[in-house]
TrEMBL record:
The keyword RNA-binding does not apply. GO terms for molecular function: chorismate mutase activity. It comes from the Bacteria. The lineage of its organism: Bacteria, Bacillati, Actinomycetota, Actinomycetes, Micrococcales. It is an enzyme of class 5 (isomerase). The keyword Hydrolase does not apply. Its EC number is 5.4.99.5. This is Chorismate mutase. Keywords: Isomerase. It comes from Cryobacterium luteum.
Length: 127
């Protein structure tokens, strides 16, 4: 069923009720994710200002590799696809670096790294 399609009128009422109940939890989790991301970006903005004030580079590939390694481990423990966890973190970090570069008054995109791209060097091989 396409995303825009409505549920069939003759669908089982109990199943629809269960679907709505599950969707409530999904909506709560999505809201929590947005709030968590907003908090994370507040902290990374502080990091961006600190780095800009002290002439530190926007990206820290060694730190990123440690974060990826750690999150892949956490994902495995939580039965979440580690490759997805890595992609998700890289997506967020690319945006953070974009912010850092803007705060520092540099080009909108860090050299050699498009928004959403994986780090330039990543020895961690997807399993
Ligand atoms: O910890 C830093 O140095 C940050 O700038 C934060 C952060 C992150 O979002 O976690 C972003 C960019 C760096 O390459 C590494 C980590």
């Amino acid at each position: 069923m396409a995303a825009h399609e409505e549920l069939p009128a003759d669908a089982d009422a109990a199943a629809i009720e269960q679907l709505h109940s599950i969707r409530e939890s999904i909506d709560n989790i999505d809201a929590a994710l947005i709030h968590l991301l907003a908090e994370r970006f507040k902290f990374t903005q502080s990091v961006g200002r600190l780095k800009a004030a002290h002439g530190l580079p926007a990206a820290d590939p060694a730190r990123e590799l440690m974060q990826i390694d750690r999150l892949r481990g956490l994902a495995e423990e939580a039965h979440l696809d580690p490759a997805f966890a890595e992609k998700f973190l890289n997506f967020i970090i690319a945006e953070v670096i974009h912010h850092h570069v803007k705060i520092a008054g540099g080009p909108a995109v860090a050299p050699g790294r498009a928004a959403g791209a994986a780090p330039a060097v990543s020895p961690i091989v997807a399993s």
